[in-house]
Amino acid sequence: MSTEAIHAATLTLDTHVDIRWPDPPDATQETDRCVDFPKMARGGLKGVVFIAYVPQGRRDDASHAAAAVRAEAMLRHIRGRADGVMRRFCASAAAIAAADAAGAQMVIAAVENGYAMGRDLSRLALWRELGAIYVTLTHNGHNALADSAIPRPDLGDPPEEHGGLSPLGRQAVAEMNRLGLLVDVSHVSKKAMLDAVAASRVPVVATHTCCAALRAHPRNVDDEQLDALRATGGLAQITAVASFLREGEKGRPTVAHVSDIADHVDHAVKRIGIQHVGLSSDFDGGGGVLGWANAAESAALTTELVRRGYDAAAVGLLWSGNFLRLMRAAEEAAS
């Protein structure tokens, strides 16, 4: 099978793409964003998890309430991007498979930063009702749920606040398990990540990360963390953020290539097995490398993986198969 045929036959799913907020553009038209529906079509990218991202802010009641309003407005907007025919909104693994079978583009939603929950666990049920499939516990900066891998001294963060997950964070993980929301451990500290792995009844996912063994960065997972994911059935999704992939020259922007993504995939696969590794871009949130700079170039990543010896089955696991396994596990645990 040719590389082109493998890419065309694969359910290609990018599990972390930001949207502009406020004033998001019409994604049905060509835009200045890395991801819109025309670019997805040209690149053979069949589905995208669009992110309701809320930046970390002050932890008072008013700020938490404003963050919740933003997250929920974004979730409603993401759902509205689907027309039900050419683009289907999907909140389950079965819906994704059905959309793929129908040849429709898949619109999926998630929340980045549990800060938007504040201290109100009931928000999680609302987010699930609005179609979210995962919640990233933190962003940059500690919140009420967990310590972040990148504290925010400008917001008063010490290097460590909770020593991992907070008691509320443990309750949130249990509630996410109950609701069928995947726990995303991207952005959390190592201690918080290992706490979440231990606390969750469902395998956890790092939706956008890279390997610390190849690039020392606080956002990357080290081999101990990779091993913990393997031991519990979890997943590390290698992402296209240049500074996570390689160290740049001092004083210059870091430049990475699609081959750097494949290097990190290779390391993770050798360490923990193909079943625990996936792909994401973090487009429009800092992601983009030479060769895979936007959704229209998505086939280039498949080409690089096939060049390195990954067959059609392995490419399918990396692009979506492993992530869909976790979605099904979350749904089964909830049911």
TrEMBL record:
Family annotation (PROSITE patterns): RENAL_DIPEPTIDASE_2 (PS51365)
InterPro entries, A to Z: Metal_Hydrolase, Pept_M19
Domain of life assignment: Bacteria
Sections of the chain in a coiled coil: none
The organism's taxonomic lineage, starting at the top: Bacteria, Pseudomonadati, Pseudomonadota, Alphaproteobacteria, Acetobacterales
PANTHER family noted in UniProt: DIPEPTIDASE (PTHR10443:SF12), MICROSOMAL DIPEPTIDASE (PTHR10443)
A Pfam family it matches: Peptidase_M19
Protein name: Membrane dipeptidase
